[in-house]
Amino acid sequence: MHFHKDLSYVGWEEVKRRQLERVPLVDEWIKLVNMKKGETVLDIGTGPGVFTLQYANFVGEDGKIYALDQSKEALDFFLKEMGEKKNNIMPICRNAETSLDNVGNVDIVMITDVLHHADSPIDL
């Protein structure tokens, strides 16, 4: 079995399906990091945004989610799937390994299902 860092060969619909399978874990992750209403969260590796939406719903309108992904296609897919824009989600197309400029102060960083795709996970 060969591992592909780049999931573009499976398509964002398939990546979304895989994320949906893990939605039951999101509440555990939120508790584990002690996420609170109104906090600002940096979600590195948003992909199709399944987890991002869960985080955004949890922090509420007073919170903020920076949805960061290096793939413009992933963010475009996410925004299309999201439909109506959520005011507490700020999409950012950038490689987190090289630059986090223009990302404001955050309370929590979520790096879910991402490290194995990074060229240099330590840089995240």
From TrEMBL:
Start and end residues of each Methyltransferase domain: 36-118
Keywords: Methyltransferase, Transferase
Matching InterPro entries: Methyltranfer_dom, SAM-dependent_MTases_sf
A GO molecular-function descriptor: methyltransferase activity
Claim: Transferase is one of the keywords in the record: yes
GO terms under biological process: methylation
Keyword Transferase in annotation: yes
Name of this chain's protein: Methyltransferase family protein
